[in-house]
């Protein structure tokens, strides 16, 4: 019954979903002190001068992002792709396809990452494999999996087995999607600056790129106003991975920051980006 209800709500017009999302965002702000504190701290860390101007819009955008996930997961794949009104930068993917090189699509928690992935998947001539972590709300996982693992979409869990799935896909000349700003587990990351503060950053992405000679493309779906849909931005990585873990993690975070600056209120500032994973070493500044 719950799944049927969620699918019913997912079919509502995007403007209505976004309106409800604004209410959900403010409700979370009022009722969840952890949500409120993380958003304040993270946004103030990244944009101290513009904090007051960006805060209220970011609360609303967080809520919009949560409600539109239902549309991304429960609507037919072709209907999800049609929500994208414009795409800038697809020529970079076309160049990689022409060169027969695998592609690592990288999208942070910015805009609508699920709709961006669905759209990109619809344009590729082969499967797109996305690494994922199960949602905290376990009852959402079947809906999420059904929405992502269809047509050209494949999923791989954020485990050793999932990494092998990604590696196999890339070595077969296919494409993968990775969210680079999820805090990895102990031993799977390194502390690197993110908006001027150490954040435990994954080392997996540079390793995959080096092992498979993949083209790394950063992208996200910008949420347009008044429920008009989305605009996908795709751009090649700025800089290069060198094999040095700290240098590579720094390059990765710099590219993430570059995307966020394009739509700062649409980043998931409520995510605990600076958390200390259990068993991971402390950053140098804490150890000092």
Automatic annotation (TrEMBL):
Alphabetized UniProt keyword annotations: Acyltransferase, Cell inner membrane, Cell membrane, Membrane, Transferase, Transmembrane, Transmembrane helix
GO biological process, one term: glycolipid biosynthetic process
Subcellular location: Cell inner membrane
Superkingdom of origin organism: Bacteria
GO MF annotations, alphabetized: acyltransferase activity
GO cellular component terms, A-Z: plasma membrane
Transmembrane regions: 12-31
Name of the molecule in the record: KDO2-lipid IV(A) lauroyltransferase
Species per Swiss-Prot/TrEMBL record: Chitinimonas taiwanensis DSM 18899
